[in-house]
Amino acid sequence: MKQVVQNYKSGELALLDVPVPGCKPGGVLVRTAYSLISTGTELMKVSEAGMSMVGKARSRPDQVAKVMQSVATNGVPATYRKVMGKLDSYTPLGYSLCGVVEQVGPGIDDVKVGDLVACAGNEHALHAELNWVPKNLYAPVPDGLAPRHAAFGTVGSIAMQGVRRGEPQLGDVALVIGLGLIGQLVVQLLAASGVRVVGADPDPARCELAERLGAVACGDPASAAVEAAAAELTDGHGVDQVYLAAGGGSNQPVELAARLCRDRGRVVDIGKCRLDLPWNAYYEKELDVRFSRSYGPGRYDPSYELEGRDYPIGYVRWTERRNLACFLDLVARGRVDVEPLVSHIADFDDAVDTYRRLKDGELKAVAVLFRYPEEKADAEPPAVAVPAVRRSGGIPVPGGRSKTQVRLGFIGAGNYATSMLLPHLTGRDGVELSTVVTTTALSGVNAQRKFGFAEATTDLDAVLGDASIDAVFVVTRHSSHAELTRRALLAGKAVFVEKPLALTEDELAGVLAAVEESGNDRIQVGFNRRFAPLLSEARKRFGARTGPASLRYLVNAGRLDHGSWYLQQGTEGTRFAGEGGHFIDTASWLLGADPVSVYATATSGGDDLQIVLRYPDGSTATISYVTSGSPGFPKETLDLLADGKVLRLDDFVRASVYGQKRWVSSRLPKARDKGQEAELAAFVRAVRTGGPMPVPLESLAATTASTLAVQAGLAAGAPVTLARAR
């Protein structure tokens, strides 16, 4: 299928061939009929992509701050790879469309194949021929409503949420600043609510259009006409609400809002304009400044948008989906008229040229629609994304043989895979990157373009069912690791799975049962720190020990950004369950054994953990996993003490050993090498030669069981033995 994409680094726009998305549970596969270009939001993104790197940095200071923090934590090379990997990738455009349901996923019963729906979301309602859309991001189109009009649904929901934030009442007077697409819709929604509207925009054509659609008076914000109209309608008291639907770098809109708003009026920011509030003006009138967050309650909440968990109507009357349905109803009943807003309808094949004309100013438009070709009657339906489990049957279990070429398949191609794993595999002798499978078509195409995969697809069977693929990398979200690993083992593949191997004891048992059933124990978990060159050298310098050791591992984990999927504990497990295996594995490797018991305690709220591991010879390891520390302090520091010796590791930058002789690593600044390259080399070598896996399965299972035992220990308030944890 075709999809509109943009490279944020170069600014290139393209109509790209990408795999068809799979129809996952909880959503529907929609064939697009019309999609709407947001001439404000999307053109701003297109313009930013055409800036220099300095210009991009100036436009997104929030992202620059994140980059600097990443440099402090991960070092320059790793941060550079991550940032450039994200910049030099195709990103999607679009978020408002109307189309026909082509497939219905499990758990969906409110629509059927052939139904017309309006869809929302900048990850699910893209300018693409087919989109997978979760339940709460689509709404059925009322009978009689034209598809091109229903394509306005998402943008209409944005305008509607802005109006709701203003809490207008019958008889109010409102000022709408900015009469672009959102502003025109706000004008109509307010007029339909019994509010008298004054509009402000420097474009006379847009002012004339707004007056035709319900505004009492409109004019240039720099002229006296707008102020005079507001004064006449309010007897000089000022408007009840001001809706900022303008963009750009001028501070004029917020200054005009303060001047024309009544005492204790409301100012609602819907667009993205400059907001240097003149303090005196806003203070003296005690103005209530409000922000409108996109389509309504539920936006940016993964449990609502992706998992389909609705908010009870008694507590949240207007959600994203209910706003979408309400706007469609208003258009269907003629209370809102979107036809006058349609400036241009372009064939989807002309998408790139249409964006160019908009960006260059050649095409003046309020709203532009893409019209998609109708599906041919004899076209084959897209393949189902999630196939049934295949038993390995005649596929031999890997190992015990030597190969000259190792063919790899990847399931997942997110930030970690593309910045920390694939760069070390691309171009490696004896390695062939065969197939990459992703849930979103575009991420697979990006990985194929950058790293040279032979094929990109959304069909899992393309990897698990391909007998020529020797090893599978599972680099997906935590909740899917155990099941994908189990299926890959049963398919006869060697498996490299990023931590964690499992989130529950049952998941771990399932993986081990697959090993027993298939006889395939060719598995490696991404515990990379034991492969870090600096730590390996320090361990060698420390030498053998004769007595018990004490190990202290401080992990200054820091706070997560709001919205991080790591915070989705209901589906992805606790943060320590996802990351803690790294530190337990490192401790066990340094101590040369697996833990026999785990004791855990936590601060109030459970954010900071103290974990004590006991080992067979009496050694102990204490792991302090804390989120309340300073981001300027190193992330990982480790001390190992035994037999009159001390090993010290400072965040994989420097290491030292104190004993009869003192050894200190180079004090020249080095990039943090946490062992990914050496770990991958060891895994590929084991697959090629058929030799043992880099880490014994027993150790991987023990580390996973120890990680899971932390939660059990917190609940019990007592030590947990590993036998009981398993």
UniProtKB/TrEMBL annotation:
Xref: PANTHER family: D-GULOSIDE 3-DEHYDROGENASE, NAD-DEPENDENT ALCOHOL DEHYDROGENASE
Taxonomy, superkingdom: Bacteria
Domain Alcohol dehydrogenase-like C-terminal per the UniProt entry, residue ranges: 182-300
Protein name, per record: Gfo/Idh/MocA family oxidoreductase
Family membership noted in the UniProt record: Belongs to the zinc-containing alcohol dehydrogenase family.
Cofactor(s) the record lists: Zn(2+)
Lineage: Bacteria, Bacillati, Actinomycetota, Actinomycetes, Kitasatosporales
Cell wall biogenesis/degradation as UniProt keyword: no
Protein species of origin: Streptomyces coryli
GO molecular function, one term: oxidoreductase activity
Domain GFO/IDH/MocA-like oxidoreductase, residue spans: 561-628
Pfam families on file: ADH_zinc_N (PF00107), GFO_IDH_MocA (PF01408), GFO_IDH_MocA_C3 (PF22725)
UniProt keywords, alphabetically: Metal-binding, Oxidoreductase, Zinc
Domain Gfo/Idh/MocA-like oxidoreductase N-terminal per the UniProt entry, residue ranges: 407-526
